[in-house]
## 1
Amino acid sequence: MHDLNCFMDGSVVCELQSTDKFEAIHELILKAPIFQRNIDNVLLEKAVILREKQQSTGFGHGVAVAHGTLKGLDTIRIALGVSRKGIDFDSLDGEPVQLLFIVASPPKMQLEYLLALSILTGLLRNKAFRDEILSYREEGQIERALCDAFHRSLQFRTKLSISRVAC
């Protein structure tokens, strides 16, 4: 399994302006530095929007995790866009999205992609964690909080799976 090095520098954009989900996806892909490094933004946006049109990825509690697969990537990339206004995302609970994540993954990293998605959604089910993220005003603070929580969860799951294999 490849190393999951998520929420590195350039993965957070504070203050998204768009209130429409497709415009917000476009805005986040254009503004997130993590998506400016050796990646075709047009193809990424098409993949994410195609997936979003199949079914909304707004899972409630002000969170959406839009995602798409993109050939040519060497690793999974995740960006977060924070919207204080809220984004109409057709979420399951009907509430606007304040935390929009976009996950871009290479086709050959499906296990890692599923693990990253599982960790991310697990973290975001915690109201205190969502509130903590929303309380920060600087991108660096949010990146550190996300990175720390993500890697703690990844380490816990790795230890758990190793202990299951060892039994």
Note: The CA atoms of residues 51 and 140 lie 29 Å apart.
## 2
Amino acid sequence: MSSKAVLTGCDLNYLPGAVAMLGSVARHHPEVERFCIVPEAEKTQAEAALGGLAKVITPPRRIPGVIDRLQIAHGKVFASDLSYFEVVAWVDTDIVFCRPAPAIWDVRPGRAVAVRCPDTNRVPHNLPTELRPRFAQLYPVLSAQPGFNGGLFAIRPKDWPDLTSDLHRVLIQMQCENHPVYFDQPLLNVMFGDRVDLLDPTYNWTELYDDPPSARQVRVVHFASKPKPWMTGYPRHEPGYWFWVRHGLAVTDPFRLAAVRARILARTPRRLLGRLWRKYGRPSPVNKG
């Protein structure tokens, strides 16, 4: 058995993403064992969709302090349960690999590997507003830092034996058990603390609504906003859609890829003008005070 594994999790709404992500891992890292955690009631459908791409598993237990609707969304804490692997990476289902990314599994003992968030974001940026003051009080240093993106991380399970309990501990500290909103990223930053080695952004590229860097530079792309590329309403004229077609759907037909690029290029002037207007052209709000 491989010493490396990848774990993801989803419900049926995100299953197309899981198929694409796990397929991309299989292409670029066939040596890595693949797992997908799904709700018990959806296991049969998930197995049919994934085929041999991954072993489909169900949550081994309930995560304390998390409402039922968000149990699967927090399934990443079960990465520490795969203790028979040396290194386990959690990868969200809205991520695809464009080429090999071995550094993800290059985890030093006692550490974790992740990718830094954009410098414009701070760890509490996706916390519900009412929780930010307490977060700042409890974790003042973290509150001023960009932190890492919660969609991709890797650990040595023996060094993090119970992420489930770690998550529950932070929920108690934050006084937000059973909160109805999903905000795992700041919680993970608290759990891992300063024991994180950060990879460069090409290992978790999220800037998909601007012209991306050379495809030779990007290893992993993350469709972090909504809708996702398999969902109705995703802007197929944006540069990021090419990554989904080429690396998510694994399209190699040069004519189809050229058609995708042509659609993107045709909208480029309009897209750039729209961004310039949003950034510089809108009138300043009138102060009515």
Note: The helical segments are 15-28, 43-50, 132-138, 140-143, 163-174, 184-192, 240-248, 254-281.
## 3
Amino acid sequence: MAAKTIIAWTDRTFNIAWGCTKISPGCKNCYADTLSHRYGQSVWGPGQPRRTFGAKHWNEPVKWNREAEQLGRRLRVFCSSMCDNFEDHPTITAERQKLWSLIRATPNLDWQLLTKRAERMARNLPTDWGSSGYPNVWLGVSIENNDYVNRADVLRTLPAVVRFVSYEPALGPLEQLNLDGLDWIIYGGESGPGYRPENKQWARDIRERCDQQGVAFFHKQSSGFRTEMGIDLDGAIVRHYPQPRRIGLSLFEDEPVMSHA
């Protein structure tokens, strides 16, 4: 539940909770919903509780922080794959406050926070977020097609060392996405039972625009039941990472931040 991961663009996953409410077409075949039910957890929907975790779970990133220091390189942590950090739910609100403290205590980890609820981000960031954001937090939004590019419009107004878009599951073209102020685009076709097919030109088009505007592009996968068979784009593995805007400066007193590898 909080360990090494098969998600190609990160090193670890950590969940502040399990459970969420679906809000747009990209949520239709949500793997987190499917996995929750497989484990007998009824945590989906606005009226349902959210699954939370104890001290042992919350201490795992502290161990990863020590590991990163020993390795001499930063580790990326995707938070949260099984919920939305910015959902309007009392349990998520409480767990999110614990998250900020954990992030401050783990300066050698780059925390990747992804949401579909862009409109809730600004008022739910910590009070010490400042004019540049935390030096070890990357903020991102999920966008599945042109109908939701406004999520990026909100994102680019927020200070962050990295702003990124997860174009997954790709359900349509994103020619209306303004790349200004964005650092990273992750493209992924939908996978699993009932997956919705992509048009590969969507990936080619956004890759070309990223190349032209100096935005890092990461092709995670093509659509299909087994995505490990389609990680290449036109015969090549295209997986680039962004360079955070501020490295080596810490907002956290007495906590060193190492250079980004």
Note: The chain has one domain: 12-229.
## 4
Amino acid sequence: MVGEYLRIEIESDELHRKIGVGIPKGALMLIEGEDGSGKSIVCQRLLYGFLKNGHTVTYICSEMTMKDFISQMKSIEYRIHEFITTKKLLYIPMFPRVGKVVPREDFLYRLMNAEKLFENEAIIIDTLNSLIKENFSKRDIFEFISFVKKIINSGRTIIITANPSLVDQKVLDLLRAICDIHFKLEIKSIGGDLKRFINIYRFRGSSIQITGGIGFRVEPKIGFVIEIAAVA
């Protein structure tokens, strides 16, 4: 699908200029980072960019109910309610709406068998470490990787976030090997301030040459902001 992209351009930041036209269709994107490094806000920025450019998205989240997610997005001026009502965005929380949260070991398998969830142009899984069992068997790994390949081979783009300290290393190594786009997020201390960076390890299919990293921050009522003067 060379030359075909899911566009991400929005008026409030220049992320699209840093990575090219957008995210290639049929790509597997892996976003790694420790807790607090910004995995979710990067996903939320990509989600909003997709939606504003007319694309359809399924967002699978292990941390927030739909109500919490809508409030979170609104707090950074990413208003998504209309996209939910028009079915451009399908939001799947791992949480129940009320009651005690009980992790389901079969949640990932239930998702993999719900084919309708994967009909949208982009599928975002945030985060993988909350969805897989601690000790994946070889069969589990094979089934999951086969599932991921099936999705991207159908022309859908899939974005997966993972905390490298918490995900089964065998699964992570395989995802690193087969992904088309590989971002690693980190926090650095620069001049006494903590700065977040997107380090781009791989970006197949970009419309521009990408080098170095991208500094960013998050501001209330503004959202994702590129740190123009940051040095990665």
Note: The two ends are 31 Å apart (CA to CA).
